[in-house]
Every structure is written in C-alpha cells, then in structure tokens.
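User: Can you recover a sequence for this backbone? Please restate the input before giving your answer.

Assistant: Of course. Working from this structure:
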C-alpha cells in the first residue's frame, strides 16, 4: 500500500508540473523540472507521487524527441513538401497540445489522489 508522502514531496511534484507548463514558453524551466523529478524519483518508492514523477520524466523526453525530429525535418526537402501541406505546423501544434493537456490532466489527478490518500 502506498505511503503518504511528505508535503515537501507533493510540492516538488506540483513544482515539476508548473515548470513543465512554463517550459512551453521557456525551455530551460522544463529542463529544471525534469532534473528535479529525476532526483526525487528514487526517494518516492512507495508513494502515489512516483507515478506522477515517472509520467513527467517520460513526457519530457518524448516531447524532446518529437521536437528534435521535427527540427531535423524542417530544412529537408521532405519538410518543404510537408510544410506546403501544413503537416509540420499541424504536428507542432499537436505536440504542444498533447504536452499541455496531459500535464493539466496529471495535476488534476494529483489533487484527486492527494484527497483520497489523506482521507
């Protein structure tokens, strides 16, 4: 059974979510967030916060990989054709939307779990 995490651990997970939200505008904040999550992941062995930390870590690296692929395709001839049809613009918008919505859903679920565990 998961143990109740400390208030500090909970606040660090919430901070991670907010840093990821700000990462859409300022990329360095997402990097800071993933570093915080990597350091706290091992300390949250039997806590419901562990799944939130893992999700944030996976989301960061997934979005970074998708952004890198998009940036690598941008100058290529393939990108020129795709840009003409609008696929790259659509893909970039989709990546940002998924990133934002999944983190918003995660922070909402975190609050729900916190209420359930504390009762």
């Amino acid at each position: 059974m998961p143990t109740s995490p400390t208030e500090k651990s909970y606040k660090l997970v919430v901070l991670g979510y907010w840093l990821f939200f700000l990462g859409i505008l300022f990329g360095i904040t997402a990097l800071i967030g993933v570093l915080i999550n990597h350091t706290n992941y091992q300390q949250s062995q039997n806590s419901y916060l562990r799944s939130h930390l893992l999700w944030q870590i996976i989301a960061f690296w997934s979005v970074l990989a998708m952004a890198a692929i998009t940036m690598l395709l941008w100058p290529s001839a393939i990108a020129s054709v795709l840009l003409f049809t609008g696929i790259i613009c659509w893909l970039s918008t989709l990546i940002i939307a998924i990133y934002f919505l999944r983190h918003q859903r995660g922070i909402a679920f975190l609050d729900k779990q916190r209420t359930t565990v504390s009762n």
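That completes the design. The helical segments are 7-23, 27-41, 49-73, 77-85, 87-118.
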